């Protein structure tokens, strides 16, 4: 693994550690606190978990392909795209978990 990839992974891990809570995401999207079971709040929380699980799966696939076939431009592009996922709303993390509700 090159230093560049190591630095990107570290940045993604650091971003995941500072992951916003569900409430911070609700505030970002302007979702009110009318009720804890508000459908939009449930949707956002669920989507964060789904996105996080997809992020983890893609990360494992890219790692496996790199081990078996080596890194090429397309695989590196996929890694770069995936590495950006935890950094943008809805701020998914690699465990597939949304922040605290």
How is this structure best summarized?
The protein is mainly alpha-helical.
Describe, in plain words, how this protein is organized in 3D.
By secondary structure, the protein is an all-alpha fold. The protein has a domain at 44-101. Helix content is 64%, strand content 0%. The protein has four helices and no strands. The radius of gyration is 15 Å and the shape is elongated. The relative contact order is 0.22.
Feature tags:
single chain, 101 residues, mainly alpha, 64% helix, elongated, disordered C terminus
**Overall residue-averaged pLDDT value:** 74
For the secondary structure, the number of strands is: 0
Structural class call reads mainly alpha
Q: Helical amount among residues, as a percent range?
A: 55-70%
Which percent band covers the strand fraction?
A: under 5%
> Segments where pLDDT lies below 50 for 5+ residues?
94-101
Tally of DSSP helical segments? 4
State Rg.
Answer: 15 Å
Inertia-based shape = elongated
Secondary-structure element series: HHHH
Major β-sheet annotation: none
Amino-to-carboxy terminus distance: 37 Å
Secondary-structure map with pairings?
Elements: H1 3-17, H2 22-29, H3 39-69, H4 73-83
Helix pairs in contact: 3-4
């Amino acid at each position: 693994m090159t230093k560049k990839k190591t630095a990107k992974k570290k940045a993604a891990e650091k971003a995941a550690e500072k992951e916003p809570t569900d409430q911070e995401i609700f505030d970002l999207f302007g979702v009110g606190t009318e009720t804890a079971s508000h459908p939009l709040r449930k949707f956002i929380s669920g989507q964060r978990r789904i996105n996080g699980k997809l992020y983890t799966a893609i990360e494992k696939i890219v790692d496996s392909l790199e081990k078996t076939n080596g890194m090429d431009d397309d695989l590196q592009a996929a890694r770069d795209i995936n590495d950006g996922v935890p950094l943008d709303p809805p701020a998914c993390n690699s465990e597939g978990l949304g922040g605290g509700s």
